[in-house]
Task: inverse folding
């Protein structure tokens, strides 16, 4: 209690893997808010966190680096909350479902600017009228990411392209010109979606591919691209 | 000690005294707080979140679950609250089958009403629910889950007031649905067709089984003679749909309306009730002689009989062998028109206008069919007849008065009060008591047979005996009583049971109403009784003359039934 | 009972809680612990003995993910799909087992009622990823081939009995 976030993440935790930059930290599970660089020197105690709209909750920290798409993070937590909703009260049962639908649309680059307003309207009603704590805190991830990472939402809805998140609609392809057939991506792929002979250009089976980007991350020749 | 004090609502100073929640106080102040899941005669559920109010510190809470507190100041219509109400309505409309214009509930639907009231013009989401099936297996109600807003009123009504627990919530979250266990249809459950689920449903998710088409076909068929009987509880409720206060007896205008619509003969169910009073009293006196079996239960409530058949058959030998007034009358009508039909070549089609959906189930029972034809061809509820009157453009309050037809249109005051809790018991007692003076009537007026408590007891001297009577309304309370009888902690000679709260005046076929309306309807029936020319069944000349002409076997065949297997 | 559930035993469990309705969930948990699922007959009997509507018992049974209303196989296979196992290719194992057991659509139990296949969020054995448990016995560093081999062995054992 009282140790700063910076100490916990960088000293005790050993810092971000692969020397990546810190982006945000989610505290206390899906119901907590997320905090950014400007909060790193804040002491971890109940009052300090409450002041910035977050909470210690379970005490767990999920640290996100520069490659994480914050919109996807919001969607991921909303998915969890929606699953846990008991279904009794209208704002949480119906509202979180709709928030999830909108966030999924946005992540798939099919959202619009109106969707951002809708997210805020829904969040306001759900937070203020839900029957229990689940509903009341369900929208915290969305509200805090909209506050601190609005540019990422705009990238999805305006540019229709997010540099971090491979966008579910996009397809990952191996450029046969650049591919040396080393097989590294094939070994990394969790879905065994890549096939190819050694030293021959490899190919991604787009049916099996879940676009996690592991192949893209490990290719030494930068041969994997989003189309 | 009652919770008393002063509250400030939208700046208005409002005293409260014993109201169970802030919502009731707000309504008392003349502000119609919107709500779906709050029904004052049921427990608080707090699910729809429409009744939210804001306190001085900006905290938002639902008023249905807030206790009134002296000095509490709240606002009911701030910008935030209106925004939230509109959003909640938009969310409900999104997960709803919005085919309003062709919906059974159109014009009477709370979702439609509140969406209009709050000016919801856009629904920005689509219906993502799985497809659901219509359930029209029940003779009483039709279930359409695509219109359900999950307010839970039907669940609480069936569980708390009726005590049957036929439907409940299944699954969770967005997949939550109201349904019988295992997704069965109503006909596969122990549903007793009381229809109270439809009576409280704010949308078209559960509605009364509408048979108006069948009625019109019979009326328009020149070869068919339509004969109608009108139940007591109907006459004090029909007027509500035309702006008249609950409890106004509009029987004579209803008769005129039916004549305009083309009905041939119009009679009064109280005629049948007089038969029931006489037969049931004689049966009761015979049981007193024979020493049992006790308690004797009334049998005029078909939902109650169905409950016994399904859940508690050991008491089937206790219920009266009398048919209900509707069916007794139907037997008399059948016998009377057999000859007439043969003479003029027409077919008689018997319609009963009832406050009750279970009567639809009763009319279809095999015990009440003869030569493949039901004694009652069609049961129409009060709501259905109201729709037919409106469809015909008839302005009920402006009509001239006309009495029902003879020979069956005249009933006693005792028959009229069958429509309210305690009425059947009082009618039987009036017949059994040898003292036929007005004093007896007065004494009964002040006895516990009248009143609104769910379980009432009375000890009445009949001859040299003291009869222990109980009157119970709300099937849940009847089940409690049965438990006490099982355990031996309660004993009664005669018990009147009505499934619906407040008796038939509160039947599911009646227009929507809370306790106050139902009590007003009961008061209307007692007032009619007071001004009736004769108040005892045995003084009904039509009834006694028929009974005199019947042999013992005929009496048994026409007027009695056995439900035992 | 053809599904292996003894109604006497079920009644014993209900009686052990004094037939008190506020023990509904505990009763259902005990019965499920013994028979791996709650059949319709079980739910009806519980409703009867506790004097609760069967709709309410069904409501509670379908509300909690923990309660299963479908019969499970003799061997319950759990493929861990937590982050570590997922990245270590737990999905191909799951798919291979599905194919081997010829499971269609939402089907979870094989036609011969021997195996039920489920995924779990995380078993906490990330160092042994990918992990598969069969009736709570942990099998580490699995592959689709090893999984099928394991199931084949179990099938042979059953046939021999």
Result:
């Amino acid at each position: 209690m009282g140790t700063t976030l910076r100490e916990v993440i960088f000293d005790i935790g050993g810092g971000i893997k692969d020397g990546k930059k810190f982006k945000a930290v989610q505290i206390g599970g899906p119901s907590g808010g997320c905090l950014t660089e400007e909060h790193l020197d804040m002491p971890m105690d109940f009052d300090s966190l409450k002041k910035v709209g977050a909470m210690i909750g379970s005490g767990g920290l999920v640290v996100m680096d520069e490659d994480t798409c914050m919109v996807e993070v919001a969607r991921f937590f909303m998915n969890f909350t929606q699953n846990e909703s008991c279904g009794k009260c209208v704002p949480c049962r119906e509202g979180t479902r709709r928030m999830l639908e909108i966030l999924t649309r946005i992540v798939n680059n099919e959202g619009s600017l109106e969707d951002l307003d809708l997210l805020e309207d829904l969040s306001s009603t759900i937070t203020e009228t839900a029957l229990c704590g689940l509903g009341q805190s369900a929208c915290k991830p969305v509200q805090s990411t909209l506050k601190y990472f609005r540019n990422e939402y705009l990238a999805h809805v305006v540019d229709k392209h997010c540099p971090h998140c491979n966008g579910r609609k996009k397809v990952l392809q191996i450029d046969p010109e650049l591919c040396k057939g080393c097989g590294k991506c094939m070994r990394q792929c969790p879905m065994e979606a890549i096939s190819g002979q050694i030293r021959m250009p490899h190919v991604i089976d787009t049916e099996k591919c879940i676009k996690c980007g592991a192949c893209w991350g490990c290719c030494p020749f930068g041969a994997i691209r989003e189309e | 000690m009652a919770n008393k004090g002063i509250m400030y609502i939208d700046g208005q100073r409002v005293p409260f005294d014993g109201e169970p929640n802030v919502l009731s106080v707000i309504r008392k102040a003349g502000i119609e707080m919107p709500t779906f899941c709050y029904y004052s005669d049921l427990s608080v559920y707090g699910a729809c979140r429409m009744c939210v109010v804001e306190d001085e510190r900006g905290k938002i809470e639902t008023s249905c679950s807030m206790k009134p507190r002296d000095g509490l100041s709240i606002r009911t219509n701030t910008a935030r609250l209106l925004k939230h109400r509109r959003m909640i309505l938009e969310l409900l409309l999104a997960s709803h089958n919005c085919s309003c214009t062709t919906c059974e509930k159109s014009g009477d639907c709370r979702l439609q009403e509140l969406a209009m009231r709050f000016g919801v013009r856009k629904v920005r989401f689509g219906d993502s629910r799985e497809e659901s099936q219509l359930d029209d297996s029940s003779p009483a109600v039709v279930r359409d889950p695509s219109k359900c807003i999950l307010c839970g009123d039907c669940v609480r009504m069936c569980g708390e007031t009726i005590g049957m627990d036929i439907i409940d919530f299944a699954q969770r979250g967005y997949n939550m649905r109201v349904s019988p266990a295992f997704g069965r249809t109503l006909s596969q459950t122990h549903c007793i067709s009381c229809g109270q689920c439809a009576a409280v449903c704010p949308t078209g998710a559960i509605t009364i089984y509408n048979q108006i088409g069948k009625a019109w076909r019979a009326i328009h068929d020149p070869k068919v003679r339509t004969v109608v009987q009108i139940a007591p509880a109907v006459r004090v409720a029909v007027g509500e749909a035309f702006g008249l206060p609950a409890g106004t007896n509009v029987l004579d205008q209803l008769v005129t309306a039916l004549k305009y619509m083309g009905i041939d003969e119009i009679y009064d169910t109280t005629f049948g009730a007089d038969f029931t009073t006489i037969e049931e009293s004689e049966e009761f006196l015979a049981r007193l002689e024979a020493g049992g079996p006790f308690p004797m239960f009334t049998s005029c409530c078909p939902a109650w009989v169905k409950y016994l058949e399904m859940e508690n058959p050991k008491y089937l030998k206790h219920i009266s062998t009398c048919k209900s007034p509707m069916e007794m009358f139907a037997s008399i009508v059948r016998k009377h028109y057999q000859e007439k039909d043969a003479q003029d070549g027409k077919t008689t089609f018997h319609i009963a206008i009832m406050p009750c959906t279970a009567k639809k189930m009763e009319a279809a029972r095999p015990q009440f069919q003869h030569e493949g034809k039901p004694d009652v061809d069609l049961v129409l509820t009060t709501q259905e007849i109201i729709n037919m009157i409106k469809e015909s453009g008839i302005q009920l309050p402006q009509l001239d008065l006309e009495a029902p037809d003879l020979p069956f249109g005249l009933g006693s005051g005792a028959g009229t009060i069958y429509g309210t809790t305690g009425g059947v018991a009082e009618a039987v007692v009036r017949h059994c008591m040898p003292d036929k003076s007005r004093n007896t009537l007065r004494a009964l007026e002040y006895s516990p047979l009248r009143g609104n408590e769910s379980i009432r007891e009375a000890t009445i001297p009949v001859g040299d005996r003291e009869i222990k009577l109980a009157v119970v309304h709300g099937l849940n309370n009847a089940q409690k009583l049965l438990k006490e009888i099982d355990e031996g902690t309660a004993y009664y000679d005669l018990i009147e049971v009505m499934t619906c709260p407040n008796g038939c005046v509160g039947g599911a076929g009646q227009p929507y109403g809370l306790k106050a309306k139902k009590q007003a309807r009961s008061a209307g029936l007692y007032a009619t009784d007071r001004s009736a020319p004769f108040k005892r069944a045995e003084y009904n000349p039509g009834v006694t003359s028929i009974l005199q002409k019947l042999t013992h076997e005929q009496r048994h065949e026409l007027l009695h039934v056995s439900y035992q297997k | 009972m053809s599904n292996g559930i003894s109604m006497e035993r079920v009644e014993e469990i209900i009686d052990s809680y004094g037939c008190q309705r506020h023990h509904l969930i505990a009763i259902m948990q005990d019965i499920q612990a013994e028979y791996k699922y709650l059949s319709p007959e079980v739910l009806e009997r519980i409703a009867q003995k506790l004097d609760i509507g069967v709709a309410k018992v069904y409501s509670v049974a379908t509300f909690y993910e923990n309660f299963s209303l479908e019969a499970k196989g003799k061997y319950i296979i759990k493929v861990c799909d937590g982050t570590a196992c997922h990245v270590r290719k737990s999905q191909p194992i799951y798919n291979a087992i599905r194919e081997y057991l010829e499971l269609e659509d939402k089907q979870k139990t094989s036609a011969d009622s021997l195996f039920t296949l489920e995924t779990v969020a995380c078993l906490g054995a990330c160092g042994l990823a990918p992990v598969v448990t069969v009736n709570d016995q942990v099998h580490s560093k699995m592959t689709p081939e090893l999984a099928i081999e394991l199931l084949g062995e179990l099938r042979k054992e059953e046939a021999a009995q």
